[in-house]
Amino acid sequence: MSEVTFQNTLSRKAEPIVPTKGNVVGMYCCGPTVYAQAHIGNFRTFLNQDIMRRVLQTAGFKVLHVRNLTDVDDKTIARSIEEGKPLKAFTEHWTEVFQKDCERFNMLPPMVEPKATEHIEEQIAMIEQLIERGYAYASDDGSVYFRVSSFDEYGKLSRIKERQLLTDTPADEEQGPVDSDEYTRDSAADFVMWKSRKPTDGDVFWDSPWGQGRPGWHLECSAMAMKYLGNNLDIHSGGVDLTFPHHENEIAQSECSCGHQKQFFKYWIHAAHLMVDGAKMSKSLNNFYTVDDIEAKGYAPVVLRYALTSGHYRQTINFTDDSLVAAQSALVKLRKFSDDILAAAGLKRSAVLKAIAKGKHAKDDWGVFADAWTKLSHDMNVPAALGAIFTAIKAKPTGPDAAVAFHRIIFALGYDLEQVVIEKPKVDAPEEVKAIAEKRWQAKQEKDWTAADALRDQLAAAGWKALDRKDGYDLEQL
Fold first, then answer.
1. Dist CA 46 CA 52 (whole Å)
2. How far is Cα 255 from Cα 245, in angstroms, rounded to an integer?
């Protein structure tokens, strides 16, 4: 088993991953809020999480991967009402869109993908534990808040001080004075765990000991992480924007609910933002993209995957059309090398990758690709690993061991090389070949199939084939 290190936001250090239970890494990833198609900024985080899992698996770890789906919040409720659809039908549609996009990106599906609405019971139970232990309280209107002052370690992840939670600083929908619930809190720093039913919620509500309402955003991740990972609370990952307040609040409510008997995740790993054309992505700036938009430009999802992951996950990258062109060029080189080394070794790409996915090629014999693996397994330095890959393939390594080592790296990066199209250079056919092709076309028009087949064979013998259209044909070199 190889060592894998990641930068831990909690300790501010690069640390080797040491699972709490054997060689099984419990990994919880904050997933999407399913109210629209996820954009490429969202997918930068999700794709880096996918590589994280693949690197761990390539190193020999088993990964128990959980990724949640937020299917109830202000946005999902408002959009479903706006479209006149029940919340469940509305969010199921966008869940399917998200999962199909993940497939297009060649992302490994999580072992568990829980929904917030399907775990209301667990969330209520956690609130009851916190109230019983004195960490949470119910307000007059039936909302429930976590008392931040009761947790001395609040802020240990983000390093934020309670004094920074000013009453004139709006935050997200679940925290800050922009919420009408502010007046029933003990402190402006306290965050909501259960939101009492409001007219704007429509028919979206659940019964609770404090009245009808719905859970706050932060609560779902705590409840579902502990349910499905138990004591395997190893890695928690998400975008850097979730560090505060979302992940900070998760830690507070989770560690207090169990009486501080265990740490809520050892490693917190965060991905940086994506810029588009040098600016924050925005529909008003016309730089807001989904995978559909990029495919409409003529690029396969693997090209977008490369462009979004070729920068270091902890550094902000700038996405441009030029980055897609560069990604396409790089992938063509990787595809050509893959084709050549597999053909020379008598191997098939699908069979090799299938065996790698099952852990059948888990030896640490990396050969010329050792430097690439070292860089990838040390804080997932993808750009450095890619540089090492291209340096290695310049030496034109051969043999089945080199072929397997190369494709183990490709598996870890998640690049589906089958999506990479290598365009053959256009070559003008010799006049004699054009003459044969024209005779064949005429024979087909006259339905002289015997003559057409014979002329087709003549074309093949000359190294060409005709690609028929309704109104003619094209010639392609074999």
1. 10
2. 16
> Contact 441/473 with Cβ under 8 angstroms?
yes
Instruction: Please give the structure tokens belonging to residue 302.
Output: 């693997």
The domain 5-271 having CATH identifier 3.40.50.150: the answer here is no
CA–CA distance, 238 with 31 (Å, rounded to integer):
8
CA distance 106 to 300: 11
Residue 111 token pair: 């072992």
Angle ∠(155,28,59) on CA atoms, nearest 5:
115
Q: Which of 224, 222, 243 is closest to 171 using CA atoms?
A: 243
Q: Which residue has the tokens 């001395």?
A: 152
pLDDT at res. 179? 39
d(CA 331, CA 415): 8
What are the phi and psi torsion angles at 72 (to 5°)?
-150, 120
Using an 8 Å Cβ cutoff, are 130 and 256 in contact? yes
Which pLDDT belongs to residue 420? Answer: 95
The amino acid occupying position 23 is N
Q: Residue 282's pLDDT is what? A: 79
Cβ distance 21 to 378 under 8 Å?
no
The CA-atom distances, in angstroms, between 121 and each of 126, 204, 215, 331, 370 are: 9, 15, 10, 47, 49
Contact, 100 vs 34, CB < 8 A? no
Question: What are the sequence ranges of the domains in the chain?
Answer: 5-271, 275-419, 431-477
CATH 1.10.730 fits 275-419, yes or no: yes
**Cα-to-chain-centroid distance, residue 214:** 28
- Asked if 215 and 116 count as a contact pair (C-beta separation under 8 A), the reply is yes
Burial tier of 114 (Cβ tally within 10 Å: 0-12, 13-18, 19+)? buried
Beginning with the edge strand found earlier in the chain, give each strand of the sheet holding 136-138 in spatial order. Answer: 136-138, 144-146, 191-196, 213-215
> What's the CA gap between 28 and 138, in Å, rounded?
29
In this predicted structure, what is the pLDDT of residue 262? 81
Residue numbers in the chain where pLDDT is lower than 70: 161-186, 260-261, 362, 424-426
Task: Report the pLDDT value the prediction gives residue 161, as an integer from 0 to 100.
Answer: 65
